[in-house]
Amino acid sequence: MNRRDILVGGVASLAAGLTGMGTARAAGEVLIGAVYPMSGSSAQVGVDGRHALETAIEIVNGVHDLDLPGARTAGLAGLGGAKIRLVMADHQGDPQKGRSEAERLITQDKVVGVVGTYHSSVAATVSVTCERYGVPFVAADSSSPSLHRRNLKYFFRPAAHDEMFSVAIFDFLDAQKKAGQTIETVALFYEDTIFGTDSSNVQRKLAKERGYKVAADVKYRASSPSLTAEVQQLKSADADVLLPSSYTTDAILLVKTMAELGYRPRNIIAQAAGFAEKATFDSVGDKLNGLISRASFALDLAAKRPAIGAVNGMYKARAGRDLNDNTSRLVEAMLVMADAVDRAKSTDGAKIRDALMATDTPAEQTIMPWRGIKFGPDGQNTLCDPVLIQYQDGQFVTVFPKEFASSRLLWPMNA
Description:
The strands form 4 sheets. A 5-stranded parallel beta sheet has the order 2-1-3-4-5, with helices on both faces. By secondary structure, it is of the alpha/beta class. The chain folds into 2 domains: 3-160 and 303-384, Rossmann fold, CATH 3.40.50; 163-295 and 388-404, Response regulator (Rossmann fold). 42% of the residues lie in helices and 16% in strands.
């Protein structure tokens, strides 16, 4: 062996030692991984997501007077009080980067479960990687309906998917028609990844079934530098309701382009995503009064469910902003994962998976307007009823269904 080989070997050994130091598991620690966009155009989603996950971990690791799983004992009681530690990975909005980062979390960091991923396209690759290694994956905020239909045994989603959300949207439209509103046409506007295409397929099908004409069916390239041609199509169609499925940068560009071209939709009902993000409303919120979005979360229901306000306060202390539809789902997803590890009394993937399958959380032990959390054989929660929220005077209020409505509906939005 020559001197160069010795030096290279020494450097490699040192690097390996430093890596081990960085990821070593402290005594009484349970590592849970999260794969989110921490850089690129969706970086703020990852930053906010981290605050949400850390809020849930704060609830589990400490002692809190909250009617939530794991809140009243310090750490995981089933593992002798072990504390959860979060390990984040950046997928940069790239499905293949997400796959490799998930594999790294599992093989190097030795996480016992993975939470993710915002982008449904990334959730598709990450969940398959977790399946291959027998590590549970909880899809916090990825809503493509196809994700839970792949016969995966380690995939779980506490929140609704886009079919469930779209049914709620069309139930709302039907209710408005019954109340005397004229709603005959809808316009579909959707990005070209799995999120947008799956969303549009569902909405197209429901429109036909419910008797609404699709006046425009506009697919666009995600993160496109211009939406002028697409907005011109929407303006020409002049549908009664615009149904956009877009992430944050696209949502902002859509609204700016509509303003530039003088297109003012009578109503917009969004599939959340970019239309749930603070960045969108900071940028173009003055043009979105009356926008409706489907949601899993309703902050204005805190009076009926005190844990909502308490957890929002904990999150806001970290993030400087309120929980929204996306970040609330991350809090709930981490609480679900932690509760399963606690009940499994083990860090073994198969045992945690079995505990997830046995989850039966009542409504009052969530921060969501759901009937509870109970997974079907495909890993989809069967009790996660969506709500519709409307942006009124700088804040979201719940407007549908009637039993959850806290404010009068503004319809049309540009009245």
